[in-house]
Structure formats: C-alpha cells, structure tokens
Design brief:
By secondary structure, this protein is an alpha/beta fold. The protein has a single domain, classed as 3-Layer(aba) Sandwich (Rossmann fold). It is about 40% helix and about 25% strand.
C-alpha cells in the first residue's frame, strides 16, 4: 500500500505544555487506523493538526508526498472530519443538509445529486431524507454527520470519538458503517476510548503517549502480550511499560 499521509517530526505545544513531541506517523491508502491513548495525551490535537485547525510549531504533514502544512484549501478538499458534535442544521431535512454542505464545496448539481443519493443509501437514510434533522434519532443523527463529512468524496475520513453518548446497539451499527466506508476505499483515522471496537475493526492501532506515537496491529500486540485477553488489558500494559 502507498503512503497517503505522513507526519514528519511534528511539534505542537500550548504555552509551555508540549502535546506532540517530534512525532512521526505514516498512514497508507486504505488504512483503518485506531488512535488510542490516555485522556489528555493529544489525540484530538493530532487530528486537528491534520485538518489545519491547529498550526504546528515544527515539522511537516505530507499528503501524497506534498507538503500541506500551509495549504488549508487542499486539506479541506481531501479530508472529511466528523467530531462528537453534530454538524448538521436541525431545521433542515436530511437531504437539505447534504445539499447545503455540497454547495459549500461548490459541487455541481449533477455531482451533488449523485453523491447525495449514494450516501443516503450507504448510511441507510434514504427512506428518511425528507425528515427534519433535528427530529431524528441519535443513531440517525450520527449517520447524517458521517454523510455530511463524505459529501465531497474526500480520500481521508477523520473521526474523533464518533460513538460517544450512543447506546450499545447504535454504537455497533456506527462501527459497522465505519468498516463499510473503509471497504469502499476510504482511508479512515478514528480516535476512540472504545477499545473493543478498535480491536475488532481497525487494521492498525496507533498508541499515543508522551507526544509520540507507536503503530502496531492486533497480531503484533498478541505476540507481545500473549497472556492478555484483549486490547483493554494490553492497553494498560502499554501504559505501564511506556511503549512509546
């Protein structure tokens, strides 16, 4: 697989608090990578650095070997970002929200109609597209946020705690959707404290600690921690041993 995103010697601090410290990370096209770490270690900061929301203090971020550190317009075109917060307008219908965001990307009506139809089908919202977004269930709201983040057909989808506050059944359906989107060819980076789903769904695991990141797989972790039953137990071991 070819590299699509590369973080090179990234530094980021807020005042005297250094969050990312000479961090290096390569992400391949088609990856579904789970970003894990203790609260406060900088997972959200790392994701927001990638989308250009935070400026880095040092280093480079490469997209297909091109430095995008100062090219926020390029980042906007190639990345879709979905946070814990709803991005839709509650007074618009599901379909109207997709069209609104599509027009922000200056998509043609023909392309927007095609993308909207595909995403409504992908997320299971086709039958509900005329409903007001503010009056749909929590799970449907989450799926609408996914559809909005994908409307411009980005190569990379970034998800920051996408299932926070959802019940277990809806949570599973959202993770199934994440896997489905990845199988369509999207590169996905997902930050989550739900390690059971990271273990089950993600091809790679990026462990962030003390400003640096260590990338591995479940297969690699099972070899390193053969006595541990799940990623939850391995995670505790990694913290105690200071893996990064």
């Amino acid at each position: 697989m070819s590299k699509i995103i590369e973080f090179v010697n990234i530094d980021k601090a807020f005042s005297t608090n250094k969050i990312l410290d000479n961090l290096n990370l390569s992400i391949n096209k088609g990856d579904l990578i789970g970003l894990i770490g203790k609260s406060g270690e900088g997972k959200t900061t790392l994701l927001r650095v990638l989308i250009g929301f935070f400026k880095i203090d040092a280093g480079q971020i490469l997209f297909n070997d091109q430095d995008i550190t100062k090219k926020t317009s390029l980042i906007r075109d190639v990345v879709g970002f979905c946070t814990q917060e709803n991005s839709f307008y509650p007074e618009l219908t599901i379909e109207e929200n997709l069209w609104y965001y599509g027009r922000l990307y200056k998509m043609s009506r023909r392309l927007l109609k095609k993308r909207s139809s595909h995403l409504l089908d992908l997320t299971g919202l086709e039958a509900h597209k005329k409903r007001l977004a503010g009056r749909i269930s929590g799970g449907m709201k989450r799926r609408l946020d996914f559809a909005i983040s994908l409307i411009h057909d980005p190569e990379i989808l970034i998800l920051d705690e996408p299932t926070t506050g959802l019940d277990p059944i809806i949570r599973k359906s959202i993770w199934d959707l994440i896997e489905k989107i990845n199988k369509e060819g999207k590169t996905i980076i997902v930050s989550s404290h739900l390690l059971d789903f990271i273990e089950e769904k993600c091809k790679k695991i990026a462990f962030l600690s003390k400003g640096k990141v260590h990338v591995t797989t479940m297969q690699g972790l099972k070899k390193k921690y053969p006595k541990e039953k799940s990623l939850n137990y391995m995670f505790v071991k990694m913290i105690k041993q200071g893996v990064v």
